């Protein structure tokens, strides 16, 4: 599994910016990614067991920190309440973390409510067109709404997606006796289907989370992607199947042991039906997004040709031969997987 870890960052086109403005994703922001890069010191952030989290808590000069904190509270208000600052005096940006790992090098901001010590997070990143398409497709086609903002300085603000990191869940919880393994297997099949239909790649275990919801008789689970950098970039079909990655094999083995082929096909059909309904409900917005995406250069010609060949073989068709871009391929794959049957 040779993943392009240093995938190039693709710039936003005027057409993509217009789409973002049309759907209230682009707003002026009081703090930019470049502003946060001006930290003066940092130290490793450890988890509760003393393990390095690969994040660093960063520090700023006192005068810069005061201005940054005020601006970050305003960003949080824009993200959560469309800019309503009536409660801003109660909020404080009390910690900023930075991660050098991966493509996006994000900052994570912790916003503290000083009245009750409750806190929330959001992320500040450099805007990459691939990631924006991934976020929008997730918002339109998955059961999960996605909240993000971007501005003309190419700063991207993302809401925190709560859940247990997939690698932690597999290592610490997958074999616990109370876990409903059948429900986990079912949800992973559905997650695998969603990723492949919209061609979201690189769903290794640390790029998704598992949200656990107590139910009246048992627990329900949902697997949610948290990394969208590899939206329709790679050429190999396996890159868009979470089941293909070695660190997911424990869950794949669970699915193979607990689910009959007919049951697996049932869950796949259920997820395609739900995605098709969402696509119909958002057909105008989805068409607008795909029209912009089809005209955008988002991968190399070699990867585009490789993926066309692989998907032609998988779908037993030659329809991908007409595709000239990754956006074309995503549109054709969605049509074949979610379109009318028969």
Compile the SSE list and pairings.
Blueprint: H1 14-22, H2 33-36, E1 41-46, E2 52-59, H3 62-81, E3 91-99, E4 107-113, E5 119-126, H4 129-141, E6 148-150, E7 155-159, E8 164-165, H5 166-172, H6 181-198, E9 208-214, E10 219-225, H7 249-258, H8 261-281, H9 283-294, H10 301-315, H11 326-338
Antiparallel strand pairs: 1-2, 2-3, 3-4, 4-5, 5-7, 6-7, 8-9, 9-10
Describe what you observe in this structure.
The chain has 342 residues and is of the alpha+beta class. The protein has 2 domains: 25-128 and 147-159, no CATH class; 164-338. 42% of the residues lie in helices and 18% in strands. It has a 7-stranded antiparallel sheet. The chain has a 3-stranded antiparallel sheet with strand order 8-9-10. Strand 6 and strand 7 form a beta hairpin. The radius of gyration is 21 Å and the shape is globular. It starts with 13 loop residues before the first helix and ends with a helix. The relative contact order is 0.12.
Quickly list its features.
alpha+beta; 7-stranded antiparallel β-sheet
Number of helices: 11
- Low-pLDDT segments: none
Walk across the major sheet and give the strand order. Answer: 1-2-3-4-5-7-6
Distance between the termini: 35 Å
Computed CA radius of gyration, to the nearest angstrom:
21 Å
What proportion of the residues is helical, as a percent range?
Answer: 40-55%
**Strand-and-helix sequence, N→C?**
HHEEHEEEHEEEHHEEHHHHH
Briefly characterize the structure.
The protein is α+β, with helices and mostly antiparallel strands and 342 residues long.
């Amino acid at each position: 599994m040779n993943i392009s870890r240093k995938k190039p960052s693709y710039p936003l086109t005027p057409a993509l910016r217009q789409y973002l403005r049309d759907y209230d994703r682009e707003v002026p922001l009081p703090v930019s990614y470049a502003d946060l890069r001006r930290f003066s010191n940092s130290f490793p952030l450890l988890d509760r067991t003393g393990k390095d989290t690969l994040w660093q808590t960063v520090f700023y000069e006192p005068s810069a920190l005061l201005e940054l904190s005020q601006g970050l509270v305003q960003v949080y208000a824009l993200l959560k309440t469309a800019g309503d600052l009536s409660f801003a005096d109660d909020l404080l940006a009390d910690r900023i973390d930075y991660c050098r790992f991966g493509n996006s090098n994000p900052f994570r901001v912790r916003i503290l409510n000083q009245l009750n010590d409750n806190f929330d997070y959001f992320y500040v990143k450099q805007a990459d067109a691939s990631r924006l398409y991934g976020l929008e497709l997730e918002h339109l086609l998955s059961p999960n709404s996605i909240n993000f903002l971007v501005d003309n300085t190419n700063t991207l603000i993302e809401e925190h997606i709560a859940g247990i990191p997939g690698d932690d869940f597999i290592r610490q919880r997958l074999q616990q006796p109370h876990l409903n393994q059948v429900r986990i297997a079912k949800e992973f099949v559905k997650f695998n289907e969603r990723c492949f239909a919209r061609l979201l790649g690189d769903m290794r275990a640390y790029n998704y989370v598992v949200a656990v919801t107590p139910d009246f008789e048992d627990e329900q689970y949902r697997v949610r992607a948290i990394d969208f950098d590899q939206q329709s970039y790679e050429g190999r079909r396996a890159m868009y199947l979470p089941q293909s990655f070695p660190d997911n094999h424990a869950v794949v083995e669970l699915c193979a042991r607990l689910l009959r082929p007919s049951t697996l096909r049932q869950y796949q059909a259920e997820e395609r039906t739900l995605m098709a309904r969402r696509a119909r409900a958002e057909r105008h917005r989805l068409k607008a997004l795909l029209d912009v995406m089809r005209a955008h250069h988002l991968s190399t010609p070699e990867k585009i040709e490789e993926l066309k060949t692989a998907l032609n073989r998988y779908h037993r068709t030659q329809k991908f031969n007409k595709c000239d871009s990754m956006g074309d391929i995503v549109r054709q794959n969605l049509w074949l997987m979610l379109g009318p049957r028969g």
